[in-house]
Design goal:
With about 240 residues, the protein is α/β, with parallel strands linked by helices. The chain has one domain: Vaccinia Virus protein VP39 (Rossmann fold), CATH 3.40.50. Helix content is about 30%, strand content about 20%. It contains seven helices and seven strands. A seven-stranded mixed β-sheet has the order 3-2-1-4-5-7-6, with helices on both faces. The termini are far apart. Keywords: Methyltransferase, Transferase. InterPro entries: Methyltransf_11, Methyltransf_Superfamily, SAM-dependent_MTases_sf. One of its GO terms (molecular function) is methyltransferase activity.
Amino acid sequence: MGSVVEWIDSSWYSAYAKNWDDAMFRERIIAHIKPDSVVLDLGAGAGIVAQMNFKGLAQKVCGVDLDPRVVDNPMLHEGRVSDARGIPYEDEVFDVVFSDNVFEHLDDPLSVYKEVSRVLKPGGVLLFKTPNKWHYMPTIARLTPHGFHQFVNRLRGRAEADTFPTRYRTNTKGDVSRLAAEAGFTVERIERIEGRPEYLRMTWPTYLAGALYERLVNSTSLLAPFRILLVGTLRKMV
């Protein structure tokens, strides 16, 4: 089975490497970071995603997370334990706030949008990457218990401690546009992206099914609402 998976990798997805989505998101973030930027990683956690390391590219990188491991995150100059609804920083501190695979976990997304707006400087940028609600993966996640999510991620090599309950309350283009407007943001860009089907690479039959789905939803913009990634770039109004 492994050889068939490897063949699909090399034949159909040769341009994709491990964590391709994080590498793509990194490029989006770097486009907005300058040497004097002060940056906040919202949901920084323990620092397990190497692509989210911006030390050396910005003046200061801060992070907040409910996970106490954030204080020892090696990718941060400063990590603080906090809920995203009460970011422990003064008003208008940051030039850039980014969030990688966090927005799907928010219970009260409007409060988070407003908090991010508060700590951003006028004209500052919020970037996030999160699953698109209507893709099959979040749809299955909404219909299954958290223990099943931990089991699937364990098969994919992700620790149970890094698998958190999902809510999907700001995970469509419409949801993002509405919440952004309420919190004082303008929407610069919302991308919906489908790439290599990571969640189905466990066996060749599932991988093949995922590849066929990928080709289908990328065949027309009409099917964009069913692609896996929702990547947003929002700017705080001046």
